[in-house]
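User: Watch each token:
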Amino acid sequence: MHEIGMCEGLVELIQRQAMGRRVTAARVRIGARHAVVDDAFGQAFALAATGTAVQDAVVELVVMPMTVGCGACGSRSESVDPLAACPVCGDDGVHLTGGEELILESVTYGEGAADVSRHPR
């Protein structure tokens, strides 16, 4: 489950930005090439956030598509499927570009400081 490594890094970044404030939500933009499963990402984020200022935050995942360029028919389209084939002619000789981003888009803070005394990390 490669989502855990990504989420550990995101939680560290969010904690640095939070500077002790309680985090209620985060929005993450991730490219389709990462092949992230939404439920697995949410579980990995919750696990990585346990005992931190981020532990009760809701994470919103926005999957960004890749561009699919077909060598056979020359068409270009977008896809979130990392195993994409050309949607026009069905050829699997496609060139994928983009879809590699992992961006923390926004963080929402709640009132007061975070209470992480229950689960020291």
